[in-house]
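Predict the 3D structure for this chain.
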Amino acid sequence: MPKTRGRRGARSTNTQMATRENSSPITTAGVVHASAAKHVYTTGASGAASLFMPIMVVLGCWGLAVFFAVFSTEPNRLLFAGMAVLMALMWSFSLGLRLRKMMQRK
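Done. Predicted structure below.
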């Protein structure tokens, strides 16, 4: 039983379930056909514009690492700085891969 009141003239849940089942990709023995597969993650920006956010994240992570290591008075400042360095290294690696892929396209 639904917890909310349905709208007047709304379709019944049985027809909604049938519609959901029909909208799934066509499969044959667990293999999704190429026509049914879609790219889920696409960015609106292309080229250098798509690198703006990763560059800002990398700079922010390295800035946090320097801040925690040098300017913080927290007793665990080196632990926090180490975690920020790990984040910065991962983002730097990701940015490097994106840059290399973009340079290979040109």
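The chain has a mean pLDDT of 79.
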